[in-house]
Specification:
Layout: E1 2-8, H1 11-19, E2 24-32, H2 41-46, E3 52-59, H3 66-75, E4 84-85, E5 88-89, E6 95-99, H4 102-116, E7 124-127, E8 132-133, H5 141-144
Parallel strand pairs: 6-7
Antiparallel strand pairs: 1-3, 1-6, 2-3, 2-8, 4-5
């Protein structure tokens, strides 16, 4: 299995979107890209930690390519919005691709460059940073709560 990590707004909806993709074997939501170890949801929401809400995706590269995961990432949010998605505003909702190796970085850069031909893209491409798993009630939130989600 391989892994990928994306920030695309409220992690509930993003996780749900990735769980529908064939070849994705597992997901978990959490926080990455900040300066505080093991932050809480409340700390991240304060905007003081620098973290983004992210989804860590485990996938089978024999079934799905990283490029197809990038397609799913860009389809599940508006990458032109900076530090927000729909009604959710703040740096924790930024659009970001956290790459684990050079192949992922190069694929992300190619995809963003192609999208920039049509519109401005706010998505950051940054090395994978420590991932801190979110509290249990955030994991598979939409599945647990009958489809209730944050809107974009």
């Amino acid at each position: 299995m391989s892994e990928a990590m994306f920030g695309a707004g409220c992690f509930w909806s993003v996780e749900h979107a990735f769980r529908q993709v064939e070849g994705v074997t597992d997901t978990e939501v959490g926080y990455a890209g900040g300066t505080v170890e093991n932050p809480t949801y409340e700390q991240v929401c304060s905007g003081d930690t620098g973290h983004a809400e992210v989804v860590r995706v485990e996938f089978d590269p024999a079934v799905i390519t990283y490029d197809r995961l990038l397609d799913a990432f860009f389809a599940c949010h508006d990458p032109t919005q900076r530090d927000r998605q729909g009604p959710d505003i703040g740096k924790q909702y930024r659009s970001a691709i956290f790459y684990f190796d050079e192949a992922q970085r190069e694929a992300a850069e190619r995809k963003v460059e192609a999208l920039k031909k049509d519109r401005d893209i706010a998505t950051q491409i940054v090395p994978a940073m420590p991932f801190y798993r979110a509290e249990e009630y955030h994991q598979r939130y939409i599945e647990k709560n009958g489809g209730a989600a944050c809107g974009i």
